[in-house]
Write a structure and sequence with these properties.
Blueprint lengths: L11 H26 L14 H15 L6 E10 L12 E3 L4 E9 L9 E11 L4 E11 L7 E6 L15 E9 L4 E10 L9 E12 L13 E5 L3 E12 L8 E7 L5 E8 L1 E4 L6 E9 L10 E9 L2 E11 L3 E2 L12 E2 L2 E2 L9 H7 L4 H22 L11 E5 L5 H14 L8 E4 L1 H4 L6 H12 L4 E4 L14 H13 L8 E6 L1 H10 L1 H6 L5 E4 L4 H14 L3 E2 L1 H16 L8 H20 L7 H5 E2 L13 H9 L4 H22 L11 E5 L5 H14 L8 E4 L1 H4 L6 H12 L4 E4 L13 H13 L7 E6 L1 H10 L1 H6 L2 E5 L4 H14 L3 E2 L1 H16 L8 H20 L10 H5 E2 L1 H5 L13 H12 L5 H19 L4 H4 L3 E6 L5 H14 L8 E5 L8 H14 L4 E5 L14 H14 L5 E6 L5 H9 L8 E4 L4 H14 L3 E2 L1 H16 L8 H22 L6 E2 L22
Length: 1198
């Protein structure tokens, strides 16, 4: 007898082979009998059942054959089922989940040699034994072999209650053996199985890690160290076998029998190949990660195994489908990674049922399984219940009006609005509210068009596509522009409102989605939507909390075949907790997690793993703690050492260091998991100018960043003008913008006391309210420092109790003593590679002492010393050295040593220090006066010179009281850069700048580049403009675009911060179209006030002024125009001015026009071969005729 091993692969091909063998044998037997008897034997005829004699003969024949035939068992299949239930399916599994109430149902397949011939009966015994061989149960069996079954079956039941002593036979886990014997008790077959104590679901035993299929060409050996990329489509040409590798994370502490069934089906659902194997176990070197791996080579050593079709691999554990992975054998190779979603158990494939249909979650169940969103789930369930109730009442004849269908999804980015919309559509379809349940996604850009009224048509088409489903409009608030009734978005909303008014059209749903604040504002201000989308239909998507974000991270890793070590997960949780604590409305929620893992973590993994020569599968799928991004911890001791080295400020240093120690102590406790309330970080700096407030703020930013309390640590320096707006709402908007810019940094608000006013209508009070609201959150990635004079700051705190609680620490910066100022002077000189002679030091100390003796609260302290050296002592030194011979100037020490003479020039008379070069001032003012037009600007600059001259006579310097910073506003070509050059000359002549040169930066250079590059460009420009004027030309459209990456206000704040941060003296002019205070500037100009808040407005040139500019440009070319030519050119200029929106009516155009006129003059002169007269005649400019052109606003025009 041939014994079939129970753990061998047994497929339909094996059965077919055996069947052919049986049929061939039967045919040969039939032929022999036909030859002997001369007639055909039809076997057992059912019509002879009632004939007792025939039955007796048949039974006698059977017993006669029994002695000859020895039964041949083909297969034994098992089903471990509850007592009293019928097995749904048997399998060749050998491992089952232990249950004391279950029985072992057994199905035995037996070879029938009498197929097609006669009816027989065989019988025997079956034993259930323990691993040690003890008999637990004995069962008699018999099987009837008919003529119509090749492989008949009989069943056995081991109910475990028929043992000798009446106790259950199987009471524990372990190995057991079923033996099947014939009547003479000869062993026919043995089946070994195991009962194991396992959780109810495989998801508690292991979690998905990776599934891959690899191509192995015919005749090639498998190189497991250099496998090709995974594929989901295989070219049939030269295809030998396909290597399947399935990896899962072992979740159980104890070892257990990890037996899997693997089945291969073709596209008709027919079983092609089956295998049963136990997974290979292994763990990481550190023992912290345990894995199970299945490796199966499909089609190995089998010729013509593959056909062009779709196949399906099904992997089962304990009878439960783990994955169903389809792949194709065809005419191409396609590389692909199998994501978790692509290998979920399928309901059907090509007619074959893989899992029960009722195991597929309903839309409501899918919604319930989503992470978080409890409020939304409850609202949708409540709405569904109302619909169900209405349907039930309607069925009983009680009419119930259906609730309003249309709604709004309101929440921050990444909170699941799109996913829930799809499920909501499916839910409403199940409820019969919608006929299709699909979702059509639209936004402003897809609903608005280039032509008038096209929005109406596009919206109607979108509604038509959404019929039977949901029209989902993302960021719907962008359509609502109440201040611009002609905005195309308003046309979209009007079309939607008209459609919503038709109550009979209920087979569609409108969902407006967007961020909370603008969505609530739109709904509140639009009565149409407010009434048609009632509060109960507004679904608020809350931000995920830290625990939910970590669940999303775990799910992401599971879906993308990654596993985090415990240390990595802890580090990720700390990172998420930190970012969550300082989140704002732009926080990405689930999208944040996905970006964090797919970009930052994946980049770190790739950098680490790519260094390995042959990384293992575990290394390719494991996330280590070093892969998790963290706030870069630096050595806080370095900036602390800088603080200690600062001149003076003894008591202040002790106070600040004590505060920092307390903050560091709390930070260390938090890192160790000890709940600790972080002390307030915000502080008040009081003191006179130049006492080191900004420098200390820089160092505190570095220290807090080193401790991980700030994510960046830079200082953003602002003052009242950077925070105050003109119109209602502007101030709050500007302040929020500054707060957004200051995230991760130190926000240094200089002269903060100017924000308070007893007048409740003053916009400064709005700044304080907005600031306190932002700081009221538990954790803010920002440190705010309010700075100013002591008395004024104390008054500010007394008048606002909220500031006292948010700013509990006040640090007072004392004025420097004479010795401390001397130490600062030597440090300033040393940094610039200068040194003082002993006599110069004595003279300098005498000079500083005299200034300290007559100082007031505006005294500049360190700023005074710095300016004294750079603007007066060094220029005096250069004048002295200019008189020396070239030979002496070759001495390096001479070029570095400041002598007493250089100091003496700054001492006598008392106001000599601030001496103005009146000749240079007059020369620059004459140049200013020669400019055409710009009367208001000229007057404003003259006023500035007069004020500076008056302060100079008082022994004060303008730049110690006000920053040398201006705004020039106006259209392109109105003289802004020319006036900036004259202003630089005046600042040098008034000894406010040492050089007075002009450095120009085009605003276009600061766009479409990364933030660090912007910083780099600005710092370089500031260094080049040291002791000169930096002119930022903002004649670029980006300055007007509120959505630009880097607007003018941000530029102004950043440059102001750099002016305070970098050593040396600077002046700054930012030119642009307008500032936020432009209406106020224009209004004051009309009242005769030429300058407000350091802003000069350059008005457009009149026609007469443009003609005068043209004449001056021609005069430079030694040309004049006669009366006829002048009339033609004036007419042409009139045409330019009539269409100012084109942006051509400016001085730049006049300069270009003068060149064209000069060319036409020279062309005529060359033809006449006459000497140059210098007179432009009518025929030279006859071609300058203004023709109407289409109005396309030019770049640089407001």
């Amino acid at each position: 007898m041939t014994t079939i091993n129970d753990n061998a692969d047994f497929t339909s091909d094996d059965f077919d082979k055996l069947l052919d063998e049986f049929i061939s044998s039967s045919i040969e037997d039939d032929s022999a009998e036909d030859d002997a008897s001369g007639k055909e034997d039809d076997g057992w005829d059912e019509e002879e059942d009632d004939d007792a004699s025939d039955a007796e003969e048949m039974e006698d024949s059977l017993f006669a054959e029994e002695d000859i035939y020895k039964p041949q068992i083909v297969a034994v299949e098992l089903a471990y089922v509850s007592e009293g239930s019928t097995p749904e399916a048997y399998s060749e599994r050998t491992v089952f989940r232990y249950n004391a109430e279950n029985r072992m149902a057994t199905r035995v397949r037996i070879h029938n040699p009498y197929y097609g011939k006669s009816y027989h009966r065989v019988e025997g015994w079956a034993y259930l034994r323990t691993e040690q061989g003890d008999v637990l149960q004995e069962v008699a069996w018999q099987c009837f072999l008919g003529t119509d079954e090749v492989l008949p079956v009989f069943t056995l039941d081991f109910n475990f209650l028929s043992s000798v002593n009446g106790e259950p036979s199987l009471k524990r886990e372990g190995l057991y053996r079923i033996e099947i014997l014939d009547k003479q008790k000869n062993r026919l077959f043995e089946k070994i199985f195991q009962l194991a104590q396992l959780p109810e679901s495989f998801t508690s035993c292991f979690s998905y890690n990776a599934f891959n299929l690899y191509r192995i060409d015919a005749g090639k050996d498998i190189d497991y160290q250099n496998l090709p990329n995974s594929q989901n489509c295989f070219h049939i040409k030269n295809l030998g076998s396909i290597l399947m590798v399935f990896l899962v994370n072992d979740l159980l502490e104890k070892e257990y029998p990890a037996e899997f069934e693997i089945k291969l089906y073709n596209e008709t659902g027919q079983l092609v190949k089956a295998n049963r194997m136990e997974a290979f176990r292994y763990c990481l070197e550190d023992g912290k990660g345990k894995f199970l791996q299945l490796v199966w080579t499909i089609g190995e050593d089998e010729k013509n195994f593959w056909n062009k079709q779709i196949y399906l691999i099904e992997i089962l554990f304990m009878g439960e489908t783990v994955i169903s992975a389809p792949f194709e054998v065809g005419v191409r190779d396609t590389e692909a990674l199998y994501g978790k979603d692509s290998i979920q158990p399928k309901t059907h494939i090509a007619g074959k049922k893989i899992v029960k249909a009722d195991s597929v979650d309903s839309p409501m169940e899918q919604l319930d399984k989503m992470i978080g969103l409890q409020r939304v789930k409850n609202q949708i369930r409540d709405y569904s219940n109302i619909i169900i109730l209405a349907r039930k009442r309607s069925a009983r004849g009680m009419e119930t009006p259906l609730p309003s269908l249309h709604g709004a999804f309101i929440g921050n980015p990444g909170t699941g609005k799109t996913t829930v919309a799809k499920l909501f559509g499916a839910i409403l379809k199940e409820l019969g509210v919608l006929s299709k349940g699909h979702v059509v996604f639209e936004e402003r850009s897809t609903l608005t068009g280039q032509f008038y009224s096209s929005e109406h048509e596009k919206t109607l088409k979108a509604m038509e596509r959404a019929k039977g489903g949901i029209l989902f409009i993302d960021e719907a608030y962008t359509l609502y522009k109440p201040n611009d009734p002609k905005d195309p978005g308003m046309q979209v909303l009007e079309t939607l409102l008209t459609a919503l008014a038709d109550e009979e059209q209920r087979d569609w749903m409108l969902l407006l989605a967007g961020y909370p604040e603008p969505m609530n504002e739109m709904l509140a201000q639009n009565p149409g939507f407010d009434s048609r989308i009632p509060p109960q239909n507004r679904y608020y998507f809350d931000d995920y909390n830290v625990e939910e974000l970590m669940q999303i991270a775990d799910l992401y890793c599971e879906n993308h075949h990654y596993v985090m070590t415990p240390e990595a997960r802890k580090a990720l949780q700390l990172k998420v907790k930190r970012d969550y604590a300082v989140r704002d409305s732009s926080f990405g929620n689930g999208r944040y997690i996905e970006n964090l893992l797919s970009m930052d973590v994946l980049q770190a993994i790739s950098s680490r793993v790519n260094k390995l020569k042959l990384p293992s599968m575990v290394q390719l799928s494991t996330i280590e703690v070093e892969d998790i991004p963290q706030i870069k911890a630096k050595d806080y001791k370095q900036p602390l050492a800088k603080l200690r080295k600062m001149v003076g400020l003894g008591e202040l240093k002790k106070s600040i260091e004590s505060h920092l120690n307390m903050v560091r102590f709390a930070s260390l406790r938090a890192e160790m998991g000890i709940h600790t309330e972080m002390p307030p970080l915000h502080m008040i700096f009081t003191g006179n100018p130049g006492t080191g407030k900004t420098t200390v703020a820089d160092l505190i930013g570095e220290i807090y960043a080193s401790l991980g309390l700030l994510s960046v640590g830079n200082v953003i320096r602002v003052e009242r003008s950077d925070l105050i707006g003109v119109h209602i709402g502007d101030t709050e908007k500007k302040t929020k913008g500054v707060l957004q810019q200051a995230r991760g940094n130190v926000l240094f608000i200089d002269e903060a006391y100017t924000l308070y006013s007893p007048n409740k209508e003053d916009y400064g009070n709005r700044v304080l309210e907005t600031l306190l609201t932002a700081l009221s959150r538990e954790e803010v990635d920002m440190l705010v420092i309010l700075a100013g004079y002591p008395e004024e700051m104390n008054l500010l705190l007394e008048t606002n109790s909220g500031l006292k609680s948010r700013f509990p620490y006040t640090f007072y910066f004392q004025d420097y003593s004479v010795d401390e100022l001397m130490e600062i002077a030597q440090s300033v000189a040393h940094k610039s590679h200068y040194c003082f002679s002993p006599a110069a030091l004595r003279s300098l100390k005498q000079l500083i002492a005299s200034e300290v003796a007559r100082k007031d609260k505006h005294f500049g302290n360190a700023r005074f010393v710095t300016r004294l050296i750079s603007a007066h002592i060094i220029p005096a030194m250069s004048n002295r050295l200019a008189k020396l011979s070239p030979a002496k100037l070759k001495n390096k020490k001479v070029l570095q040593t400041i002598c007493k003479e250089d100091i003496s020039l700054c001492m006598e008379p008392a106001d000599k220090e601030y001496a103005f070069d009146e000749k240079a001032i007059a020369r620059s003012l004459r140049k200013l006066d020669k400019l055409v037009g710009l009367e208001q600007v000229k007057q404003g600059i003259r006023n500035f010179v007069e004020i500076a001259r008056y302060l100079n006579k008082q022994g004060k310097s303008y730049d110690e009281m006000e920053p040398l910073r201006w705004n020039f506003t106006g259209n392109t070509g109105t003289g802004k850069s020319t006036v900036a050059g004259i202003l630089a000359e005046l600042l040098k002549a008034m000894n406010m700048l040492g050089k007075g040169h002009l450095v120009e930066v085009k605003a276009e250079e600061l766009y479409n580049v990364s933030e660090y590059k912007v910083d780099e460009l600005l710092r370089d420009a500031m260094r080049r403009s040291c002791q000169g004027l930096l002119f930022v030309d903002g004649d670029a459209p980006q300055f007007k675009n509120p959505n630009s990456y880097f607007d003018g206000e941000k530029l102004r704040i950043k440059l102001g911060t750099l002016m305070a941060e970098l050593p040396g003296l600077y002046a700054l002019v930012i030119a642009g179209y307008a500032t936020n205070r432009q209406p106020l500037v224009d209004n004051l100009q009309r009242c005769g006030i030429p300058e407000f808040d350091h802003t000069f407005h350059f008005a457009d040139y009149s026609e007469e002024e443009l003609f005068r500019i043209l004449e001056l440009c021609l005069k430079e070319r030694q040309l004049v125009v006669d009366e006829g030519a002048g009339c033609i050119l004036k007419t042409y200029i009139h045409g330019l001015c009539s269409r100012r929106e084109l942006g051509y009516a400016n001085a730049r155009t006049m300069k270009l026009l003068s060149r064209s006129v000069a060319d036409m003059y020279l062309l005529r002169a060359s033809k006449e071969n006459a000497s140059s007269s210098g007179v432009v005649r009518t025929e030279d400019v006859s071609g300058f005729v203004w023709n109407e052109v289409r109005a396309i606003p030019r770049i640089g025009y407001k």
